[in-house]
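Agenda item 2: arginine complex prediction
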Amino acid sequence: MTSSCAGGRRARARRYLMCRPTYFDVRYAINPWMDPHRPVDTARACAQWEALRALYRDLGHTVELIEPLPGLPDMVYAANGGLVVGGRALGVLFRHPERRGEQAPYLRRLARLAPGGVYRPAFCNEGEGDFLPVGEMILAGTGFRSEPAAHAEAARVLGRPVHSLTLVDPRFYHLDTALCVLDDDLVAYLPAAFDDAARRRLATLFPDAIRVSEADAAVFGLNAVSDGRHVVLSAAAEGFAADLRTRGFEPIGVEFDELRRGGGGIKCATLEIRA
Ligand code: ARG
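Presented output:
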């Protein structure tokens, strides 16, 4: 399947990069979701991850893999491995030293997936955690992880307009926990996760956006992956799923709560490789 069209929404086949949670664990706390004193069920995380990978394949998408490495328990969050647009990859520079060991392996892997080359960043950015392409533009989060200078760097390296958005709620520390790209001109977001300037900017750019409830965002409902028609999201985000149906999308709810223990969800585990 390359594309399907029903109900007006058209799916486009995607290419994703994922990392098996073989060594997933919560050994440090760098966001409010992480509690190193509560044991993690790694087998359960792997089973949920395998089901997600199989679902992407059933939907007609290509899933590339990166080898997980011991000692890097957050490596499963592949969205933080880079940003690939137009075949060109921007590498990452993590805010927290605990994750910096992931930078080189992701750079090496992206070098083989991005024919346009890989750029090593000078400023802190956490890949698709904070950079979300929408059509020709890129939305960029800051406030907790990626720094504003990295937004300018991304615009320069990738040759796309970048809109900076400041996040204000520590639970929604990456842009992909507070905003979901549904299509080339449509997003969904939690307004309360952004400062006033960002809210104004989003209202101007996307007057038709879906505004999602705090309850749905708190189960990582916005940490979802859309192919333009199917939206793979947390099964617990029922209100958001209903809104998606109204807009002609096909929501597919999945159980992905074990990785929430590290502060991530479906989108965090998925890096899109854009040709
Ligand atoms: N434990 C990871 C961190 O705090 C979770 C990353 C989630 N990734 C994402 N794209 N939101 O860095």
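Discussion summary: Residues 81 and 106 are 6 Å apart (CA to CA).
Owner for follow-up: CH.
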